[in-house]
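ok so I'm stuck.
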Amino acid sequence: MFSGSIPALVTPFAQGRFDEEAFAAFVEWQILSGSSALVPCGTTGEAPTLPVDEHHAIIRRCVEVANGRVPVIAGCGSNDTATALDHLRRAADSGADAALVVTPYYNRPSQDGLIRHYEMLADASVLPIVLYIVPGRTGVSLAVDTVARLARHQRIVGIKDATGDLGRVSATRIACGEGFVQLSGNDDTALGFAAMGGEGCISVTANVAPDLCAALQAAALAGDLPTARALQHRLYPLHSALFADNSPAPAKYALSRLGRMRDEVRPPLGDCSPAARAAIDAALAHAGLLERPA
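replied:
not stuck anymore, here's the structure
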C-alpha cells in the first residue's frame, strides 16, 4: 500500500504562524522530487505545538496540493484515545488517504491498553491506519506479538518502526505476513531496514534531500545494493546532522540554507546551536546540496 521515500513533513512558520505559501511550494517540490507519499503533522511537523484547527488546516492544504498524485498519511496520534478519534474523523473529512498513529506517550499504557486503544481507533476509522512506534520519544513500544494481533484488523495496514532494531523487521514479517507494510522510522538504518524486508522509510532527511532519498529507496527496493550503498554514504552525514540538535530545528535550518523556508520552530523547541549549524552545512556540502559550508 505504501512504499519508497515518504517525508515526515516539517511545518514552515513565519513569525509564529503557519506559512501556507511556503508549505504549498514545499509539498510541490517533494512530489516533483520523487517522494512516494507525504506525512503532514507528525513528529517532524511539530504536531504537539499545533492547535487542532491548525493541525487539520495543514492536512487539508497538503491534500489539496497533492491532488491525488501521491497518498497523504495524516498524523493523527494522541495520548488520549478520544482526541485521536477526533483527529481520524477530521483527517478523513479533509481527504487524507491514511493515518499515522503514534503510540500514546507520557501515560505509558500496557500492551493490553495499547491493543484497546488501537482497536477502538480502527473500529471507528474509515482510514487505513499505520502504527507508529518511537519508544525514545514516547516511553512505550508495541511488542511484535501485539503488532501481530493488531494486524488482524482490516484497517491496520502497516507500521512505522523507529526502534532502530533491525531484527524486528524479520520478526514482524513472520508474525504479520507479507501484506503488512513495514516502514523505517530511522534514516540512518533505512538501507538495512530495506535489506531485511522493509518497504520504505518515513523520513526526516527526505525533507532536505527528497530526490536522493527517493533514489536510495528505489535502488534498495530493486535490489541494486551498490547504488543504494553509494547513496547511503552520500547521505549519512546528513542523517546524523539532522539530529545534532532538537529535531526538527536542524531540518528547518538546512531548508533555510536551500532557500525553501524560514529557519523557525515553535517553543519549547529552540534554534540550532552553532555547532549543529556547522555540522549541517558540512553534511549538505558532502551530499552535494551546497557548494560549500557557510
